[in-house]
Amino acid sequence: MNLLTDTSQPRVGPGFRLQWEPAQEAHVLLYPEGMVKLNGSAGEIMKRCDGQSELAAIVQSLEQAFQTQGLRPDVEAFMEMASKQGWLVWS
Question: Name one Pfam family in it (predicted).
Fold first, then answer.
């Protein structure tokens, strides 16, 4: 069921724009019908999804930033959910 590979390159889906919203103190996804406020973890993942960074590099970057290991299953689970919502697409 898992279609993600080390070389998968996620990017923000068409119709969505990721930005930091100071008033919300959070990253948000803007789209024509509204806005999705992301929690801290989701924002950290989404801001690394630029269509050029591969999944393995995104996980490594997150593990370095938060000085931890073993984040891949959680990152993949979020990306799969975000993909179903149209927030992420794959290069």
Answer: PqqD
